[in-house]
Structures are given as C-alpha cells and as structure tokens.
Amino acid sequence: YYYLPYMYCMDPEMLDPTYWEGKVAMVGASLPGLMDLRNTPVQETFAGVEIHANVMNSILQNQFVKKTSPTKNFNTILFLTILTGLIISLPKKTLYTIPVPIVGMIAWWAFTLFQFFNHLIMWETVRPMLSIFGTYGGVFLYNFFGAEKDKRFLKDTFSTYISPTLIDQMFDAKEEPQLGGEEGYHTAFFTDIQSFSAFSEKLSATDLVELLNDYLTEMTDILLENKGTLDKYIGDAIVAFYGAPAPVNDHEYYACRTAVLMQKGLSEMRDRWRGEGDRWPEIVHNMQNRIGINTGQMVTGNMGSTMRMNYTMMGDTVNLAARLESSAKQYGIYIQVANESYIACKDKFVWRDLDFVRVMGKTEPAQVYELVAITGEETDKEKTFLKAYHEALALYRNQEWDKAKEAFKAADELEDMFAGRKTNPSRVYIPRCDHWKESPPGDDWDGVWTLTSK
C-alpha cells in the first residue's frame, strides 16, 4: 500500500484528482504519538489504518487467509514424524543425525512463511516443529540406550584385542562371538623380541617395564589398525590372529602387511632411542623382533575354565606359525611366512624363497619364505642380493654343489649384516652344500632340510 500525506488528498494542485480513479483511500494516522500502531503476527508495529485496508482489500479481491484444518494438521505432523524417523535411522552412527532435526525445523518454518505470503495459507508452525524434534529425541535415546548398548558391550568386551573397525563390522552383521571353539580358515601371527633375556641384564626393572610397554603399545597399535585380533602377551611376545571373531577378507595380506609395518615401526623406535643418547644401552639401540605367519584351519573361541576364559586360537596351523617365528633366527631373518600365506598375497610383497624345511616337532615339511618388503618399496640393495641369492638357490636345488657354494658366498657379500644380525640365508646354505656334496641326497631328493633345534 502507498502512504500519502493528508494534504495531497485535499489540494488538487498538489495531486491531480484523476489519480484517485479506480482507487480506494483509507484515512488514518501512522505516527507513533497518535497511538494507532498495533501488533500483528507478521509485524510488531503495524498502522491500524492498514489493518482496515487489508480487510477491505480481502473483501474486494475475495482473497482471505485460510487456516489449515485439524485433520490436515494431524496428517502433516504424522508425515513429518515418519519422515524424520526414516531419515535418522539411515546413518550407522547416531551422532551423524544431529543436523537432521535442525534442518527439518528450519525447512518447515520457511515452508509456512512461503505458504502464508504467497498463498495466504496459515499452517501450524510450532507443533510440527515439536514433532520433528520429539521424533529425533526419541530415536536418539532408543539408539543410545538400546541399540548402541549392544555395540558398547562389544567394545567394552573386545576393544582390548580387536580393532574398532572389526567391532563395528561384528555389530552391523549381528555376528556375536560364540562361546566355545569354532573352526575356520584364519591366519596365525607370532612375534617376539630377539634375545630379550639379555635386555634384563642391561636394564633395571623399571626401565625394562618402560621399554617393553613402549614397544608393545607401538606394535599392538599397528596390529589393531590392520584388522588383527590380539590373543595375548607372553612376556615380550605378541600372539595374534586374523579372520576371527569377525571375518576379514584377505586376512593373509593384512597379516603380512602388519609384519612389514611392525619392522618399519621398530626402525623408527630405534632411531628415537638412539636420539635419547645414553638413556638406553646399545642393545636397545639395536633391538630386532622376529615374526612368524601361517594360514590354515584352526579353532578360535573362548577357551579355559568356567571361572576364567580367554578368546584364543588352537591347532596345527598355530603351532607351525610359532615354530616359524622361533626358527627365523637360524636363517638370520625377521619375517618368516609359510606357503599358504605366501600364495594368497604373493603379488603384493617382495619375497625370498627361503627353504623347504621340516621344523622341530613337525613331521610334515613346509615351504617357507622371507617377507622382504611391500611390492614397489624394496631398495636397490634388496633387489641386488635377492637376484644373486635366487640364482644360487637354483644351483643348490639342481645339486650343483660347488657352483651353488660359490654363488652363495657371492650373495653373502651383498647381504646387509647390521648390528645384532649373526647370520643370513646365504651363510646357512654354504655348509649345506658341503654336507650334500659329501652325502649326496640322490635323484629323488625333495629338497627338504630338517631343523634340529627351535
């Protein structure tokens, strides 16, 4: 509406009388001092005369503000309640739904304003917004105290030895761990510190505990980040497995990746300890760990007594993994992997064909490999000595003992004999060449070597 001073209406010289043709004029006051300002739902101070103008305009145009019916209001509230419930039930984590009620209430408020100013339809504003907020609050509380309770139980029970990702997977798939043992195809993982007994001679009990806690924390973090399940600590040793209690695709790959990352992590820890000067003795600066990995059928589950149980693993696969970890020292290597694990992820890592060996306590021979690096991350030095070593191994398996011996000697010169490493696979094969030369194995030789110590 246009506001004109009253004098314009009375003086034809100020405003041409033809201006009023086809128009209706309402006379009134708009000054605050004249006490004709009113409060309305759309504006706090509204000239009283304009209220009359709106009434007259509605009559002339036959356009009136229409309120929605109680039935329509009820159906709207019901629709918004169901829609809000469906939307906030989609995200896996309840906290992700916090923006939903805020956006919903703002959207409804904007919709009611649009309907009023453009179509003169007056929708209910408060109760639909309360229904959105109330629905969110109800579902949130249900998830937190109901559905989330089960997830919190799993996390409280298993978070010390299962990665959070696997716990979420178990919850989403409704896979609760079963009491007792369950057989499955998994990967066993063993690691411990090389010559750890010597550490206790060089360190006080307090320093030894501090060092061990630092080491175990770093190694366990790597294990859990790569979907491993921590079985137990045995002194400095870590026992773990992959694929239970929740399934893990490519569990062989994750076990091998864990081993490589543990070696990298330990290397960084050694650099940090050296940087602390005389805080730690030289034996700590040169700390190494050995790892054994094997894949196969095993039993996992809660085992023990009715008073005290432990989620662990058992089986021949587990025993071989433990033997591979301990026998790695005889070859001077730090990650020894059985053939079953190797086959599943051979293209993703760089390997050394180590041996076809019968370990202590086993009657069946096993083909074993040294895990050197992730594919593409091997150094030029590793490429060089692996090429020389495999050429020597081919001569050895062809029973060309003299040529194999000289080739292993050449490969030995290329090996990295860092502090604490007492031997390497090439050195192991040199006396074997002499042994087989003196006592030839025959044409039907299967290449098996029997270890006489763990």
Which overall shape is indicated by the principal axes computed on the Cα atoms?
elongated
Largest sheet report? 9 strands, mixed
How large, in whole angstroms, is the Cα Rg?
Answer: 40 Å
For the record, the CATH class of the largest domain is Alpha Beta
Spans of at least 5 consecutive residues with low confidence: none
Q: Give me the CATH fold name of the largest domain.
A: Alpha-Beta Plaits
How much helix is in the residues?
40-55%
Q: Which series of helices and strands comes N to C? A: HEEHEHHEHHEHHEEHHEEHEHEEHHHE
Q: Oligomeric state of the chains? A: single chain
Q: Which structural class do you get from the secondary structure elements?
A: alpha+beta
> How many domains make up the 3D coordinates?
3
State the total count of DSSP E strands: 13
Summed over residues and divided by their number, the pLDDT gives a mean of 88
In CATH, the homologous superfamily of the largest domain goes by the name: Nucleotide cyclase, GGDEF domain
Q: State the CATH architecture of the largest domain.
A: 2-Layer Sandwich
**SS summary, helix count:** 15
Give the termini separation.
100 Å
Approximately how much beta-strand content do the residues carry? 15-25%
Organism: marine metagenome
Protein name: Guanylate cyclase domain-containing protein
Keywords: Membrane, Transmembrane, Transmembrane helix
Pfam families: CHASE2, Guanylate_cyc
